[in-house]
């Protein structure tokens, strides 16, 4: 499902803009997390490695966290200083994407279309999203899975509060 271009994402520093403005120059490669669940915590190390693999590409790598800015900083700790972080406390972006489970890995092109999405953690599904990003950005994909990545697991309900 393609997100509404009008849905507002707020960066950790408080810069709130509609999605279409965040997409003017770069695609979005987003890992969407619910900081109130173990499942989102389990994937943090892997998500950082995957997003780090796309740094420098035409994709703006980021985390979208379904909480306030203060809660996002507390959940992510030092990761919040290493990546662009958007806060989606009312889950408007999550709803706009039609996500059913978190964590999720989503690729949104500059034209606002979702080109790939994986919900929960399954290395094969995340690899497919990473392949799409790599092909779109003429970039190499990080390896998935690697030793130390968690085993597959279902996510938690994306629209739970």
UniProtKB/TrEMBL annotation:
InterPro entries: Thioredoxin-like_sf (IPR036249)
Protein name: Unannotated protein
Species: freshwater metagenome
């Amino acid at each position: 499902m393609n997100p509404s271009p009008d849905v507002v994402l707020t960066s950790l520093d408080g810069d709130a803009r509609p999605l279409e403005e965040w997409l003017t120059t770069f695609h979005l490669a987003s890992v969407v997390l619910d900081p109130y669940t173990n499942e989102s915590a389990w994937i943090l190390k892997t998500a950082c490695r995957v997003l780090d693999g796309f740094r420098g590409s035409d994709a703006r790598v980021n985390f979208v966290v379904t909480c306030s800015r203060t809660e996002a900083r507390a959940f992510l700790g030092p990761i919040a200083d290493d990546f662009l972080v958007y806060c989606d406390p009312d889950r408007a972006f999550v709803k706009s994407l039609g996500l059913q489970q978190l964590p999720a890995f989503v690729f949104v092109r500059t034209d606002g279309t979702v080109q790939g999405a994986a919900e929960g953690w399954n290395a094969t599904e995340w690899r497919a999203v990473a392949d799409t990003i790599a092909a779109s950005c003429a970039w190499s994909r990080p390896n998935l899975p690697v030793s130390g990545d968690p085993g597959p697991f279902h996510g938690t309900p994306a629209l739970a509060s």
